[in-house]
Amino acid sequence: MFSLFVRRLNTVWDNFERKLEDHIRTQRVFGLSQREIYTALQSDLDGSQSVFGDLIGGAQRETDFGLNASYQVASNEGIAAEMVVWTLDPEAEHCDSCLAQSAMGARRRDVVPFPGFQPTAGESNCERYCKCTLEPVNG
Ligand SMILES: [Zn+2]
User: Fold this and answer.
1) 40: which residues sit within 8 A by CB, 6+ positions away?
2) pLDDT classification of 33: cutoffs 50, 70, 90
3) What span, in angstroms and rounded, lies between the C-alpha atoms of 38 and 61?
4) Dist. CA 63–CA 84, nearest whole Å
5) How far is the CA of 68 from the centre of ligand 1 (A)?
6) What's the pLDDT at 5?
7) Ligand 1 centroid vs 93 CA: distance in angstroms?
8) DSSP collapsed to 3 states, the chain
9) What is the pLDDT of residue 32?
């Protein structure tokens, strides 16, 4: 789980590097000097402009994803039961994918995806914003 999170953060970083290179290349084509380009980039460091803004936004999204996934792990790791049922949070809106999971009833723990990592069924999938939990079933 954690390695997935790190991989996603790396993707954000790779995209940023590529975008920064493109940006610098474009500025050179327009005839800006190295110094002009870096001065402009420095004033963009607060993230208000596109290049750094995307990096910050992307990192924020993936951090939220990681935190939510960790929360899901923490709320589910106590499950020792063999059989679990996908349980919808009564307060949350439900996507097609979670509704499909919950419709499958009690299943063995090892064949049920982790909330937040459910495969897409139907039109929608809440993925990282999933609030579902796996509840043990006795008997
Ligand atoms: Zn869902």
Assistant:
1) 27, 32
2) confident
3) 27
4) 28
5) 13
6) 63
7) 7
8) CHHHHHHHHHHHHHHHHHHHHHHHHHHHHCCCCHHHHHHHHHHCCCCCCHHHHHHHHHHHHHHHHHHHHHHHHHHHCCCCCCEEEEECCCCCCCCHHHHHHHHCCEEEHHHCCCCCCCCCCCCCCCHHHCCCEEEECCC
9) 82
Count of residues for the chain? Answer: 139
Residue pair 79/106 in contact by the 8 Å Cβ criterion: no
The pair phi, psi for residue 95, each rounded to 5°, is -85, 170
Q: How far apart are the CA of 136 and the centre of ligand 1, in A?
A: 19
Cα separation, 40 vs 34, in Å, equals 10
More confident call, 131 vs 57? 131
Q: How far is the CA of 124 from the centre of ligand 1 (A)?
A: 8
> Residue for token digits 């590529």?
18
The C-alpha atoms of residue 34 and residue 12 are separated, in whole angstroms, by 25
Is this model's pTM higher than 0.70 or not? no
